[in-house]
Design brief:
Rossmann fold; homodimer; 11 helices; DNA-binding; CheY-like_superfamily (chains A, B); DNA binding (chains A, B); LuxR family two component transcriptional regulator (chains A, B); phosphoprotein (chains A, B); alpha/beta; six-stranded parallel sheet; NreC/VraR/RcsB-like_REC (chains A, B); Arc Repressor Mutant, subunit A
DNA sequence: ATCCGGCTTGGGAAATTTGCCCGAGCTGCA
DNA sequence: TGCAGCTCGGGCAAATTTCCCAAGCCGGAT
């Protein structure tokens, strides 16, 4: 491996919003040492782009249609354990953060962070360090202290993803398509989530998701 | 800068993610005719910034924490009816689009749009035209409904009451009992409300009720 | 090595709800 | 008088939800 510090840091941007990618690209490139060598707008393309360009850092938003972003992380890491992945998203739920790290992410930064925090996180991750924004650290700290787990802790990763999409207004079929599952499976998850959380109504489910920060209203 | 009209279009950016604002700013300013004169990261500051800078166009994401973005639109328009507001968000639910337009927005563009579509929308809005991205036009076309009013204006007294209880988490039977109606009638109202508002999902209904202040979450 | 438990994925079948059509009573209004 | 709109519910096919079950997989415990 050559010296990253001398040549700069190559970045693969993964986000489903074209304009957002454009913006990030400009912000990162204005730093001088960061170079966006490729972009992808979905989890499926992310690994292809990674393979083709072998970037130092992958910056990706985990809230994408198609396969879950967590899926993408595992995907990339399974084939390239050296990969450095920085999750960059608007979500800040403790369960999500933990899921991302255990999936193999090297860092987790929210979009509420200052641009400087984001670029510093990219540099940290490129050096092989772990990185997270202050708000994430705070949330993880609180979480580790609280004896009463959030309701979401009872839910598996898939369940959380489905709950998020459901609360966001997606139909069962849309979720099935996004996640490449059968409608039947999504229906079963829907039911499972309700029983696990104790919600007796779809509306209660949405409120629950909202109060847990899974969705914004 | 003497004549704004001759020198380009001044823009106020409202989005709660600093990095995202940075990115938009760079994308817009690279166009030459667009100038970001101010930014705000919440609905409350948006009007202050508007008053201070009198921009030609306000570009804002309605999915912000704190006060609803719709609130912000109404706020600005109430005091400055000339204001041109372009909603720029990742959401693409028909109910939200209609709510935004009836709140006084001049345009609605999703973040899935190409950057060129976004800047063109800004130019259109600056000229006083209405603008929306193709996906939004498609969604509204499908929706193909009555000329607007606030979404709640289409609903009768009973419908609103039932929507409130439903969004609050009540079961169909519970609502029927509370209001002394047959379950069948409540079911019919449920259906009616969905078709009238264009909500395709119970979750969308809850979100709608929440954004209209019918229920708190 | 083996077993256990949990996650994920779906089948099946009964129960319930939805989607959409309908009619009827009531009110206000032209 | 008549129309229009809200309120209330029946009917019925289609879809969804509700439960229960099974199989594969994986990680941890024995």
């Amino acid at each position: 491996m050559n010296d990253v510090a001398a040549t700069g840091i190559s970045v693969l941007l993964v986000d489903d919003h074209p304009i957002v990618r454009q913006g990030y690209r400009r912000v990162l490139e204005s730093q001088g040492d960061l170079h966006v060598v490729a972009e992808a707008d979905n989890a499926a393309d992310a690994y292809g782009a990674f393979k083709a360009h072998d970037p130092d850092v992958v910056v990706l938003d985990i809230s994408m249609p198609g396969a879950s972003g967590l899926e993408a992380i595992r995907n990339i890491r399974a084939r390239s354990p050296r990969a450095r992945i920085l999750v960059f998203t608007m979500h800040n739920e403790a369960v999500l953060v933990k899921a991302a790290f255990s999936a193999g992410a090297s860092g987790f930064v929210t979009k509420s962070s200052e641009p400087s925090a984001v670029v510093n996180a990219i540099r940290s991750v490129a050096r092989g360090e772990r990185a997270m924004s202050d708000d994430i650290a705070h949330i993880l700290a609180e979480d580790s202290l609280s004896p009463t787990g959030s309701v979401l802790d009872q839910l598996g990763e898939r369940e959380i993803e489905i709950l998020r999409q459901f609360a966001g207004g997606a139909t069962t079929e849309e979720i099935a398509t996004h996640l490449n599952l059968s409608v039947k499976t999504v229906q079963n998850y829907h039911y499972l989530i309700k029983t696990k959380t104790g919600a007796r109504t779809d509306a209660q489910l949405v409120r629950l998701a909202a109060t847990c920060g899974l969705t914004r209203i």
